[in-house]
TrEMBL record:
Belongs to the bacterial ribosomal protein bL32 family. This is Large ribosomal subunit protein bL32m. It is found in: Mitochondrion. Its main location: mitochondrion. GO terms for molecular function: structural constituent of ribosome. It comes from the Eukaryota.
Length: 126
């Protein structure tokens, strides 16, 4: 027994053989048709192509949603876009005003900045 029959590829090839021969006979029978019948088949194919093209054009022109999106569905979709609460706001230990966590207090920073500039002017560093 050969390796081809043991693996089962020969059996698979035999099972697909009738399908291949049927398609071959259809293709070869096109040459045996009368010219008038062949012309009729070709004209039908062309008209079918035109109809399919018209259908596709109409489908593209009418490509709109079938139903209106309701207010509740729109609200459900937009619910994750709402403004979130900030949880990183703390009190400044120096002045007691609100500041962002891990950031300098803007009021204290401005106060220190003006005092430092005044110090530079007084000492002549500027």
């Amino acid at each position: 027994m050969s390796a081809l029959t043991r693996s089962g590829t020969l059996a698979r090839a035999v099972r697909t053989l009738p399908v291949q021969t049927r398609s071959f006979t259809l293709a070869s029978s096109a040459g045996t048709l009368t010219p008038s019948l062949w012309a009729g088949i070709q004209s039908y194919g062309e008209s079918l192509r035109q109809r399919v093209g018209q259908f596709l054009e109409e489908a593209i022109l009418r490509a709109v949603p079938k139903k209106h999106t309701t207010h509740s569905r729109r609200r459900m979709r937009d619910s994750n876009k709402a403004i979130k609460d900030r949880k990183d706001i703390n009190k400044c230990p120096a002045c007691g005003r609100n500041k962002l966590m891990h950031h300098l207090c803007l009021y204290c920073y401005g106060d220190i900045k003006t005092k430092f500039q005044q110090f530079k002017k007084d000492t002549g560093l500027l």
